[in-house]
């Protein structure tokens, strides 16, 4: 769940920023789609946009799962947020220096046009990932609330004295 929130925060910000600077709201998704379709994704249709959205959602959900496995519901929210932000910065560095120049030069060129926004987007990604312990706590409470009735045996029903069929059993 936190990975999904992280993806929405990151892509929502990048799409709003891209629209504000006149590149159109779908340019970040098209740039991600260029990983599969190359530079043609920038002028491509909905398939390139959907591919970019799928790449972002898939990677963010995978990061959310890994972050969730590395934290627990006892992890403080502040610590989780700091770790998430640090992870977002580490991903920003890895993407900007190593991954994009070699795997997606089209997106690397687009990122060069908006480096501050790209950095802020990765901070938002980290904040979204940092929400993992909160989601774990909420879902754990819901799960516990629904399983309490199954874990405890039912209490026996009280038997009324008037329900016994034979009079000798009544006292």
Short characterization:
This protein is mainly α. Helix content is 74%, strand content 0%.
Overview of this structure, please?
This protein has 171 residues and is mainly α. The chain has one domain (2-145). It is built from seven helices and no strands. It has helices spanning 2-20, 27-37, 46-70, 77-103, 105-113, 115-130, 132-151. Helix 1 (2-20) packs across helix 3. The longest helix is centred in the middle third of the chain and has 27 residues, at 77-103. The protein is elongated, with a radius of gyration of 26 Å. The N and C termini lie far apart (60 Å). 30% of the residues are buried. The mean pLDDT is 82.
Give the number of DSSP strands.
Answer: 0
Enumerate how many helices there are, as a single number: 7
Order of helices and strands: HHHHHHH
**Major β-sheet profile:** none
Number of domains as seen in the coordinates: 1
Shape: elongated
Give me the oligomer status.
Answer: single chain
Mean pLDDT score: 82
- The percent of residues in helical segments reads over 70%
pLDDT < 50 runs, ≥5 residues: none
Query: Which value, in Å, is the CA radius of gyration?
Result: 26 Å
The end-to-end span amounts to 60 Å
Beta-strand percentage? under 5%
Briefly note the structural class of the backbone: mainly alpha
